[in-house]
Write a structure and sequence with these properties.
Elements: H1 2-29, H2 35-38, H3 45-55, H4 61-73, H5 87-122, H6 127-141, H7 144-158, H8 171-201, H9 204-211, H10 216-225, H11 229-253, H12 259-268, H13 272-300
């Protein structure tokens, strides 16, 4: 197990490094000069040159990158060009709001997705199966920004039941953005759960259990759903990454003060250090979640062994 974890950590580190290289290069290839964000038009060219030297932007790209990685390893992600604050502090100040939204959305997607998928498999070919299948297809196809705007207009502006922006109203503020963010993962989990449970219900040991007179509900839950947990767990880990990506859109629509909205503002301001810090943080979080999912395989299925 330790050898397996070590190999996975090594591969995960390579993934993070690769992501950091790609983001660094793409940001620096975008036209424009971030120094102009910090200087007004009235300041001289000499001031601009001095600031470029101070930020290290006059150095070759490879040197800028290695300097950034060296500081990041020591916990220094640089300072925001626009806000003039440490990037790490800005991320930690917003990450709690994003995690709160992501956890609530993921919990909603897991509970409803597995329940609906199992029901659809248990009652295959009936009305509930068709309803779940069509609903899942619509949920996967519906863009997050469009659904968010619809919910905002209906429940926020027209009916006035729920707040439409920010997180000042506690749990009520979570309702609309969490439903919006959970829709695509919920539909994906429901579809996979249905197909996985149907595959298990067609196996010989399930037929034997039914022949012994076991309750159909017990067979579906104990044999069907339980033996389908590995693919379901895998897709849940993948959906965590999609939640972080979708949070960028949802947080913008609902003015949610998380790292997704912070990333949008940083991109608009060409705030290189802040963009790089956020992407690096999200990459590490995604890699760690997938590592945790791999380790859960042995818990969910004793037949899994790590060599």
């Amino acid at each position: 197990m330790l050898a397996y974890i070590s190999r996975r950590l090594g591969l995960s580190a390579l993934v993070v490094v690769g992501v950091s290289v790609l983001v660094f290069m793409m940001l620096h290839l975008v036209p424009g000069n971030p120094v102009l964000v910090m200087l007004s038009e009235s300041q001289s060219v000499t001031s601009a040159k001095s600031l470029e030297h101070e930020l290290g932007l006059d150095q070759p790209l490879y040197k800028q990158y290695f300097d950034y990685i060296d500081r990041a390893v020591h916990g220094d992600l640089g300072r925001s060009i626009r806000l003039r604050l440490p990037v790490a502090a800005l991320i930690w100040g917003r990450v709690g709001n994003t995690l709160q939204l992501a956890v609530v959305s993921l919990a909603l997607a897991i509970v409803l997705g597995t329940m609906l998928g199992t029901l659809a498999a248990a009652y295959r070919g009936r009305l509930i199966d068709y309803g779940v299948t069509v609903g899942a297809l619509v949920g996967v196809s519906l863009p997050s920004f469009f659904l968010g705007i619809l919910l905002l207009l209906l429940f926020g502006l027209r009916l006035g039941w729920l707040p439409i922006a920010g997180n000042q109203d506690g749990l009520l503020s979570l309702v609309l953005p969490s439903i919006t963010l959970a829709t695509i993962p919920l539909a994906t989990i429901a579809r996979l759960t249905r197909s996985s449970v149907l595959n298990v219900l067609g196996e010989d040991h399930v037929r034997v259990a039914r022949a012994k007179g076991l309750c159909y509900r017990t067979v579906v839950v104990k044999h069907g759903l339980r033996n389908s947990l590995i693919p379901i767990t895998t897709i849940i880990g993948v959906q965590f990454g999609s939640l972080l990506g979708g949070a960028v859109i949802v947080e913008t629509v609902f003015a949610w003060p998380g790292i997704g909205r912070l990333l949008v503002d940083a991109v608009n301001d060409r705030d290189f250090p802040l963009v790089q810090g956020i992407v690096l943080f999200v990459s590490i979080a995604f890699v760690l979640v997938n590592l945790l999912v791999d380790l859960l395989y042995a818990v969910l299925d004793p037949r899994v062994r790590y060599g």
